[in-house]
Amino acid sequence: MKHAMNMSENREVLQTITSCGNLVQQKRRDRNSEMSTLSREERRRRRRATQKYRTAHATRERIRVEAFNVAFSELRKLLPTLPPDKKLSKIEILRLAICYIAYLNHVLDA
Predict the structure, then answer these.
(1) Residue 20: which H helix or E strand, with range?
(2) CA-to-CA dists, residue 25 to 12, 16, 17, 22, 38, angstroms
(3) Cα 56 from Cα 64, distance rounded (Å)
(4) What is the pLDDT of residues 75-107, one digit of tens each?
(5) How far apart are CA 50 and CA 90, in angstroms?
(6) Cα angle at 45 between 55 and 36, to 5 degrees?
(7) Residue 76 CB contacts under 8 Å (≥ 6 apart), including other chains
(8) For residues 90 and 68, is the Cβ–Cβ distance under 8 A?
(9) Contact at 8 Å (CB) between 99 and 82?
(10) What is the pLDDT of residues 5-54, one digit of tens each?
(11) Residue 4: which pLDDT band, with cuts at 50, 70 and 90?
């Protein structure tokens, strides 16, 4: 008799697991069908709203800004100014680089 109870308990557990699995699959189907009816822009907005996406995007942005600042720093080292250690803004670095390139072209042409 004890064996029969275990069999019925096992059957109930199996039914519960199966029904949970079916529920998960149904939720996936519902979510996928919902996503397929959304516009491309709305799907993009929803994906971008996730914490994982925002964290990854923020990390990429920090790396990009750091590379950008390193490039300005390297360009700054190549430009002559008085005093040599004078702090310049990014726009000042660009304007000075343009003037310096024009000057070097003038020297080459002369």
Answers:
(1) helix 2-37
(2) 20, 14, 12, 5, 20
(3) 12
(4) 999 999 888 888 999 999 999 999 999 999 999
(5) 34
(6) 125
(7) 88, 93
(8) no
(9) no
(10) 566 776 776 677 677 667 677 767 766 666 667 888 888 888 888 888 88
(11) low
Residue 58 confidence (pLDDT) above 70 = yes
Residue with the larger pLDDT of the pair 51 and 63? 63
Check: CB of residue 72 under 8 Å from CB of residue 95.
no
> What is the rounded CA–CA span in Å between residue 107 and residue 110?
5
Q: Domain map of the chain by residue range?
A: 2-79, 80-110
Which DSSP category does 79 fall into?
Answer: S
Contacts of 72 (CB under 8 A, 6+ apart): 90, 93
> What is the Cα–Cα distance from 23 to 35, expressed in whole angstroms?
18
